[in-house]
Every structure is written in structure tokens, then in C-alpha cells.
Amino acid sequence: MIDRRQLLIKAAGSALLINLAAQASAFAAATSGERFEVTLSDAEWRKRLTPEQYAVLRDHSTERAGTSPLDHEKRKGVFVCAGCNLDLYRSEDKFDSGTGWPSFVRPIKNAVRTSIDRSLFSVRIEVHCRRCGGHLGHVFDDGPAPTGKRYCMNGIAMKFRSA
């Protein structure tokens, strides 16, 4: 006979496995049918990116809050995709959201695409690079004027090029 504790542990374990499977297929589902200018094999991506960059850009991981130096970057310049060097965000569109991740009110025109992310038991809007499809972060409707958007990005998914 299964007691209540065992039932809860099994249910939590099943939910975790379902969530992990959803995350593993999130990139394929989010970008299915899309063609990208920069398309590399898995081995080529692993060679081009650090293990941390690969985890975020290709496997949809998230860096720990407060760990990216780009969250505190205040110089004039452009934030570019760490996977393909596409210009993504201008420094003048960056703001301190207090979340521990670099945040922006808007991307550069035609730099990113969005898709529905149903992982982590919620529905969010995922942001990925228009040119290589790399996962950058998510966009939320709680940002400041003028857009009201908060593009909450993984700093490890970007590099900074000063002006």
C-alpha cells in the first residue's frame, strides 16, 4: 500500500520528468519550421561556444541571477548574440530591472523573434536570436515606458561591443 508521502514523492518526480522533457524539446518546438542564416551542427556549436553559453543558447538553460557582468554594463555600445554576433540591443534601451539579469525595453529592429514557452509549469514568451535561433531569455509586460516591456536576457547569451 502506498502512503500519502510516497504518493506525493512519485507525483513530484513524474511532474519533474515531464517538465524536463518539455524543456528538452522546447527549442525544437519553438523554432520548428524556421530557417536560420547561421545553422551549425551540434558539434560545431559546442566548439564555438563555452559550455555555459551552449547550455543557455542551445539547451534553453538559464544563468543564475546576478552572475552576469553584463547586468552592470553601463557603457555606450551594443549587446550582440554570443552565438552569431548579431546586434540585439542598444545600451540606451537597457535598464536596471532589479532582477539580476540584463533587461531592455526593446530589441534592435529585426534582431529577435519570439515564441511561446510552456516549460516550468507556466506560459511565457521566449526570445531567441533571429539569425541563429539561440535562446536569449524571455519578455514580460512589466517594463518601464515607453514600451512597457522587459526583455529579460541571459547575459551569458550575449557579448558587449562598446561604441
**From the helix content, strand content and strand pairing, which structural class follows?**
alpha+beta
Specify the number of helices: 3
- Shape by Cα distribution: globular
Q: What is the rounded Rg?
A: 17 Å
User: Beta-strand percentage?
Assistant: 15-25%
Residue windows where pLDDT falls under 50 for at least 5 positions = 13-31
Distance between the termini: 67 Å
- CATH class annotation: Mainly Beta
Strand and helix order: HHHEEEEEEEEE
Helix content: 25-40%
Largest beta sheet: what is the strand line-up?
3-4-8-7-6-5
Strand runs, count: 9
CATH topology: Metal Binding Protein, Guanine Nucleotide Exchange Factor, Chain A
Question: How would you sum up this structure in a few lines?
Answer:
This protein is an alpha+beta fold. The chain contains 3 helices and 9 strands, in the order αααβββββββββ. The protein is globular and about 65 Å long.
State the main characteristics.
three-stranded antiparallel sheet, six-stranded antiparallel sheet, 163 residues, 26% helix, globular, 25% strand, Metal Binding Protein, Guanine Nucleotide Exchange Factor, Chain A, 9 strands, alpha+beta, 3 helices
